[in-house]
Design goal:
The complex is a heterodimer of chains A (444) and B (277).
Chain A (H helix, E strand, L loop, with lengths): L21 E3 L6 E4 L9 E2 L6 E2 L6 E2 L14 E10 L5 E9 L22 H10 L12 H5 L9 E6 L8 H8 L1 H15 L3 E7 L3 H11 L5 E6 L8 H9 L14 E5 H12 L6 E7 L7 E6 L4 H7 L7 E6 L6 E2 L13 E6 L16 H5 L6 H9 L3 H6 L10 H5 L6 H22 L1
Parallel strand pairs in A: 1-13, 8-9, 8-11, 9-10, 12-16
Antiparallel strand pairs in A: 2-7, 3-5, 4-6, 6-7, 12-13, 14-15, 14-16
Helix pairs in contact in A: 1-4, 4-7, 10-13
Chain B lengths: L1 H27 L6 H9 L13 H10 L13 H11 L9 E5 L4 H4 L12 H7 L15 H5 L5 E3 L6 E3 L9 H5 L5 E5 L7 E3 L7 H7 L9 H5 L5 E4 L2 E4 L9 H5 L5 E3 L10
Antiparallel strand pairs in B: 1-4, 2-3, 5-8, 6-7
Helix pairs in contact in B: 2-3, 2-4
């Protein structure tokens, strides 16, 4: 079975809600839509207090290439354009909408039948993907139209579809693959047309045999799409590791997967692209898993963007008594939330409630030079060395040892027997080095 | 006896040849250095804190000599007299400047704000700032992890365990400004020291709107503008929901301290005049 070879760890996969079917979460507002939910230039609101909005109406605009927009998840009235806390508790501009009736934009088609005929040209597909606010739903929220616009000096050979879901607890991609296999495959075909590639590989880890079997059976009816089972290993869902696992190619240091002829899209993104291109639906809802060892009823929900996470927790039987940490995302790369008023964004794949005894870090001890972090690093870095270099402010040394290649997967910290904050220092150092490099390039 | 003589002669000859070779090599690779660099470096504090923007004191001396004094470089650690001595040596004009001291514009900490979350990660303000708004939810306030104390080369900043905020030791501080650069939130500001009168500054840095700021902290500035209205010299400005006292115009009358409904304006204790003892 294929996998990547350098480093990686294998935490217990804990897929608790694998068999819980996806439900629609009822919520009667108000919705709070953060204005910038993507990576890149922030957008500006184009609605104001008191405006009536239809479902699917764009709420923001941005002329920059590396940016994306948000749309109204429901029809209703704009209650306010103010600030709301994001996942880090920083106040960010947001639009509050009180739902009222259900009036959709005319272009949206709510017809659930499968539409396999791709009518748009590649340029039109990219334009549509941009207009419908599609971003990478794996978690990074990188605007999808940017990934689809390939630089002139590169050529894509493969479209790799990420159904790996290597993080423990996360299960939303698996549910999507079981519930919407045909839609995903049409989405993949659309992306193949936009990129003009003739080969697409869907990578799924071996702990999801049902999804592998189902997609293999369905993919036979589509040209150029194959399904590959991958050995279970974290972080296989990271772009560079997935390229290595599926094609055997290596992405050069400091370069993007496109330099190795690959474009990677998450299965969730493929589904969103299908909805946008075939049904003209903007990205206003996504699948979210609510999970954790103490959750009374772990469930999967179709949630409208802008719903507060408290509504999700309540629908699962409320906050368990000894909750120590609420994590947006998985336990390896997710972000701890400060409170439950944070709204659901496009990048939220799961809400993980950890009991207090699992929520704390161990006591930091000295580095014993065991080298476990070096063995675990999937990028071939030396985390213990970079850790020390950052603590001593030796940014030149960090740059020399390729700190900018760190993908922040957390394998080093996961394996460290001394509980050293390796990932924290590497992130800090990476930010600083990136800043130094940017300054150097601008002064040149 | 002859063995002994040979040994002495051999060693003497080797030493002589080596001396001649070394002499020529030394002449060949001689580094010409302006003798003034050493003289200037002697007059600098020698703390190598980097506050002037150069790598250390000798680097500053070199830069001063190389530019022949035609430069804006200035050592903030030197007192006016010390800097005047350097300027005299370089034949340049030394501006006298008022002594400054950093003030920490946050009174949140453990006493005045309520901890809503707990942070367990790396002990670094820069990192914590990239992750979250802070344990008390204020995204402008002191994170209490001590980046400024680690940046201080003179050991004058310490974290007060009681308040969780940075405190400045006035006697040790040289106003090098490294703490100002280290704070990821720009809370620390260099202001005129005014050792006799004491300093008056707004001990808050939040630009959140009043209602939100009040939720985070008991001593948060809510931008009500009472201080600005009461100031007899018009030294106070309210911008982005935050009052700011212009230290170049403040006359230390203390009116603003009395009218502030939130007790966010701090007045340091003036030094006790010698005559009162």
């Amino acid at each position: 079975m294929k996998t990547f070879h350098k480093g990686g760890v294998h935490p217990n996969d804990n897929k608790l809600n694998a068999d819980a079917p996806a439900q629609v979460l009822p919520f009667d507002g108000p919705y709070c839509i953060l204005v910038s939910q993507h990576l890149g230039a922030p957008s500006t609101p184009i609605v104001k207090k008191g405006d009536k909005v239809k479902r699917g109406q764009p709420l923001t605009e941005n002329q920059a290439f590396l940016s994306s927009v948000v749309h109204a998840p429901v029809s209703g009235t704009v209650q306010n354009v103010a600030e709301a806390p994001d996942a880090g508790n920083f106040a960010r501009p947001a639009i509050f909408i009180q739902p009222d009736g259900d009036e959709a934009e005319d272009f949206i088609s709510d017809d659930p039948t499968l539409d396999r005929e791709i009518r748009l040209s590649p340029a039109e597909i990219i334009e549509r993907v941009k207009a419908m606010g599609i971003v990478g739903l794996g978690g990074a929220c990188f605007p999808t139209h940017v990934k689809l616009s390939i630089p002139k000096d590169c050529k894509a050979d493969y479209l790799l579809v990420n159904g790996v879901e290597c993080e423990p607890y996360l299960i939303d991609d698996y549910r999507l693959m079981l519930d919407k296999p045909d839609e995903i495959l049409v989405g993949v075909s659309i992306l193949m047309k936009a990129l003009s590639v003739d080969k697409a590989i869907i990578g799924i880890e071996a702990n999801k045999p049902k999804a592998i079997a189902l997609l293999k059976e369905k993919a036979a009816a589509y040209d150029g799409i194959s399904v590959e089972a991958l050995k279970m290993k974290y972080p296989q869902g990271a772009e560079k590791q997935l390229v290595k696992a599926l094609t055997g190619r290596e992405v050069p240091s400091g370069k993007l997967p496109i330099n190795a002829g690959c474009v990677i899209q998450n299965v969730g993104t493929c589904f969103a692209v299908y909805e946008a291109v075939q049904k003209h639906k903007p990205l206003t809802e996504r699948l979210v898993t609510v999970t954790g060892p103490m959750v009374k009823e772990p469930r999967n929900f179709w949630v409208k963007i802008g719903t507060p996470v408290s509504a999700l927790v309540e629908a699962c039987g409320g906050l368990p008594e000894n909750t120590g940490k609420i994590i947006a995302g998985g336990p390896m790369m997710g972000k701890a939330l400060p409170h439950l008023n944070v709204p659901v964004t496009k990048g939220l794949s799961a809400l993980l409630l950890l009991p207090d005894e699992q929520a704390h870090r161990g006591t930091v001890a000295h580095c014993i030079r065991c080298g476990k972090c070096v063995a675990a690093c999937p990028m071939g870095l030396e985390p213990y060395l970079l850790h020390a270099a950052v603590l001593h402010q030796r940014m030149d040394l960090c740059e020399h040892h390729h700190i900018t290649d760190c993908i922040e997967c957390g394998c080093c910290q996961y394996t460290c027997p001394s509980f050293r904050p390796l990932l924290d220092t590497l992130r800090l150092g990476k930010n600083k080095v990136n800043q130094i490099i940017r300054n150097r390039n601008t002064t040149k | 006896m002859t063995t002994f003589l040979y040994a002495v002669l051999l060693l003497a000859a080797t030493g002589l040849i080596a001396a001649v070779v070394l002499y020529f090599i030394a002449m060949k690779f001689k580094v010409e250095e302006d003798p003034r660099i050493d003289l200037v470096a002697e007059r600098l504090p020698g703390a190598n804190c980097g506050a002037c923007g150069k790598a250390g004191c000798r680097d500053l001396a070199k830069a001063l000599v190389e530019s022949n004094g035609q430069t804006d470089l200035h050592c903030p650690v030197c007192s006016n007299e010390e800097w005047a001595a350097v300027a005299e040596l370089m034949g340049m004009h030394a501006d006298t400047c008022e002594v400054k001291i950093p003030v920490v514009r946050c009174q949140g900490g453990h006493l005045n704000s309520i901890r809503q979350t707990a942070y367990e990660g790396l002990e670094s303000c820069a990192f914590a700032h990239s992750l979250h708004a802070g344990e008390n939810g204020c995204s402008y306030g002191c994170l209490g992890l001590g980046d400024c104390t680690r940046a201080c080369a003179f050991n004058c900043l310490t974290m007060d365990p009681k308040t969780g905020l940075a405190t400045v030791n006035e006697d040790r501080c040289t106003a090098c400004g490294n703490c100002v650069k280290a704070c990821p939130r720009g809370i620390i500001e260099l202001r005129y020291k005014h050792a006799q009168e004491g300093r008056i500054y707004v001990g808050c840095h939040t630009e959140d709107k009043g209602a939100l700021a009040m939720k985070h902290c008991l001593s948060a500035c809510i931008g009500c503008g009472k201080c600005a209205k009461s100031c007899p010299v018009g030294a106070i400005k309210v911008e982005n929901n935050l009052a700011y006292i212009d230290f170049t115009r403040c006359t230390h009358c203390g009116t603003c301290v009395e009218v502030c409904p939130r007790k966010s304006i701090v007045a340091t204790q003036p030094a006790i005049p010698a005559s009162s003892n």
